[in-house]
C-alpha cells in the first residue's frame, strides 16, 4: 500500500501518540498452558490448488491430536475484516499484510494458525515471515499446475475468468510468484488429500 493511502495518512497522524504496552503474560506462558509450540502454517498456491481443502483437513488432524488451532481462509476473511478490499495488486498486498498481523496475534495467543490465501506475491509472504520468530513461520507451497486447477475449477471461477467476467484472476491475467524456498511443497496433482495432510503433519509436529 502506498504512503498516500487514507489508512497510512491517519496512521502517520496518530503514531507519535501511541505507546506500546507490555503484558504480564507472555507468548511462552500462553503456549505452556496449551502444551504446544505456536506456529503459523502459511499455505500459498493458485485458486483450486487445494489450500482450503488441505487447511481444513490439517486443522481436523491437529485438533484430533489435542492441538489448539485457528484457520484463516481468504474467502472467509474477505467477507469480514477485509471486505473493503478487491483483487488489485495493491489490495492483495494489504489483504496479506492484515492477515499476517492477525496470524501474528494468534501465534502470540499460543495457537497453531493455518492460513489459506493465494498470497501471490513473494515480497508479501516474505514480509509475513519477518513478523515471526525463527521456526514459527512454515511456508507451504500448495503446488498444482494451472491446467490442473483450471480443470478442477471447484467454484467455476476459471471459466468466468476465461470469459472475461472476472478480471485480474490469478494465473490468467494476474501473476502468481511461486515460493523459491518454502519449508514444504505439497504436490496436490500427484498425491491425494490424505497423503498431503500426512506430509504436512510430519513437517509441522
Ligand atoms: N480475481 C481473482 N483472483 C483470484 N481469486 C479470486 C478472484 N476473484 C475472486 N477470487 C476468489 O477469492 C479467493 C482469493 O482470495 P485471497 O484472499 O486468497 O487472495 S489474495 O491472497 O489476496 O490474492 C479465491 O479463493 P481460492 O479459490 O480458495 O484461492 C477465489 O475464490
Ligand atoms: N491432494 C489434494 N489436495 C487438496 N485438494 C485436492 C487434492 N486432490 C484433489 N483436490 C481437489 O481440488 C479442489 C481444491 O479446491 P480448494 O481446496 O477450494 O482449493 P483452493 O482453496 O486452493 O482454491 C477440491 O475440489 C479438492 O477436492
UniProtKB/TrEMBL annotation:
InterPro entries in the cross-refs: APS, APS_kinase_dom, P-loop_NTPase
The reaction(s) this protein catalyses: adenosine 5'-phosphosulfate + ATP = 3'-phosphoadenylyl sulfate + ADP + H(+)
Domain APS kinase: 38-187
EC class of the enzyme, as a word: transferase
Pathway assigned in UniProt: Sulfur metabolism; hydrogen sulfide biosynthesis; sulfite from sulfate: step 2/3
Name the record gives this protein: Adenylyl-sulfate kinase
GO molecular function, one term: ATP binding
Active site location: 119 (phosphoserine intermediate)
Family: Belongs to the APS kinase family.
Pfam families to which the protein is assigned, alphabetical: APS_kinase
BP GO terms, sorted: hydrogen sulfide biosynthetic process; sulfate assimilation
UniProt-listed Enzyme Commission number(s): 2.7.1.25
HAMAP family reported in the protein's UniProt record: Adenylyl_sulf_kinase (MF_00065)
Residues reported to bind ATP: 45-52
Keywords: ATP-binding, Kinase, Nucleotide-binding, Phosphoprotein, Transferase
Role according to the record: Catalyzes the synthesis of activated sulfate.
Entry superkingdom: Bacteria
